[in-house]
Amino acid sequence: MKTAVIFFSYDGNTAFVAQLLKKVLNADLVQLSLKDEKKRGKIASIFWGGGMVFSGKKPPLKPYDFNPAVYDLIILGSPVWAGSPAPPLKTFLSQTPVTGNKLALFVCHGGGPGKSLEKFKALVSGNEIVSAADFVMPLKNKEEAQKKITEWVAKI
Hints:
Elements (H helix, E strand, L loop, with lengths): L2 E6 L4 H13 L2 E5 L9 H14 L17 E9 L2 E2 L1 H9 L6 E8 L6 H8 L4 E9 L5 H14 L1
Parallel strand pairs: 1-2, 1-3, 3-5, 5-6
Antiparallel strand pairs: 3-4
Helix pairs in contact: 1-5
């Protein structure tokens, strides 16, 4: 099965999970990157990210190369921002026609997933969602994250 992992990571947690998925599934990896590369402090990033979520903004992304038609499974990953998937995923989904595909979704968070997975599923309606998972601070819980990925991948 040809698999792609598409993800956005702000602090490295989502990238960590994406890299493990790449290894386990021998998947192609596409990291979404913001055109605005400015790093913000913890408090500033909360206001900046939350502001984008609440205002519905879709931040510009650096160019990426991805054709969903060549994949049997697409895994989308995002950090949780204000109880939602990060806005760069909205940008990606508005620019790339991802419909009629088999998808798996994951989110990374430090304080709970909230309704992020439900909101994520709503963003990708018109696809078959085969599985969804959330990871709690995977960079601080690497062994637990690796175990959960192994179990999750077996269910996909």
